[in-house]
Specification:
Blueprint lengths: L5 H4 L7 E3 H15 L1 H11 L2 H6 L8 E3 L2 H13 L1 H22 L1 H6 L11 H19 L3 E7 L2 E7 L15 H15 L6 E5 L8 E6 L5
Antiparallel strand pairs: 1-2, 3-4, 4-6, 5-6
């Protein structure tokens, strides 16, 4: 008998995969924003039986195909329009970061790089936090994250981005990750707000997805 979750969890494409436990956190965050029934409708619109089968399953050592999360972003745009879909994904990104921090709290506490993080100057704290998060994704998924600095901004570049892989859009569309960065910066800074924008997006034809994050809080 065919496993109904196979379409979402196995990736025959060269794109690769995304960790199941992280992907499930994202799905549960979207569900928290939309409500159970509305999110089930989104999953049906995404047209991947695997996503419907696994989003509430118990965590297990497996992977989503890389394009699965982008299918959900696309379904939100189709059902609610780009502006409303963007708002939902931004909120879900913030929730996902909080859920993710709880998931990896033990790993962060044990990491030598995380010790003394809170005592660093703000800009150094942000850079160190981004390095830790990039390391988690580079080690556990087939996306490639590169970091760079540009003046008072941090640039996060995602190659094989799981939030838009396989999509074709007119505008940058990785809204959930923008929300994740906004919440991560607030967590690192003790509740301050920062400007975050996606400046390049693979879905609209750019070579990769790049996010610019100011390391200076908004007034």
């Amino acid at each position: 008998m065919t496993d109904p979750s196979a379409s979402a969890l196995q990736s025959p494409s060269p794109a690769g995969s995304f960790p199941y436990r992280f992907g499930r956190i994202v799905l549960l965050a979207w569900e928290e924003v939309l409500g159970k029934q509305a999110f089930e409708r989104v999953l049906r619109e995404a047209d991947d039986p695997g996503l419907q089968a696994v989003h509430l399953a118990d965590p297990r050592p497996s992977h989503f195909k890389l394009e699965a999360l982008g299918q959900v972003e696309g379904a939100l745009d189709t059902l609610y329009g780009e502006q409303a879909g963007r708002g939902m994904s931004l909120r879900a990104g913030r929730i996902a970061l909080r859920k993710g921090l709880r998931e990896i709290a033990g790993v962060l506490t044990a990491s030598p790089q995380c010790r003394g993080l809170r005592s660093l100057p703000l800009q150094s704290r942000i850079l160190r936090g981004a390095e830790l998060l990039a390391e988690v994704f580079n080690r556990n998924s087939d996306q490639v994250v590169r970091l760079a600095t540009e003046g008072r901004s941090l640039l996060w570049t995602n190659e094989r981005c799981p939030y838009c892989f396989g999509r074709h859009t007119q505008r940058a569309c990785c809204h959930l990750l923008v929300g994740t960065f906004q919440e991560g910066l607030a967590w690192l800074s003790g509740g301050k707000h920062f400007a975050v924008e996606e400046v390049t997006c693979a879905a609209r034809g750019d070579p990769a997805c790049t996010f610019r994050m100011s390391t200076a809080p908004l007034e």
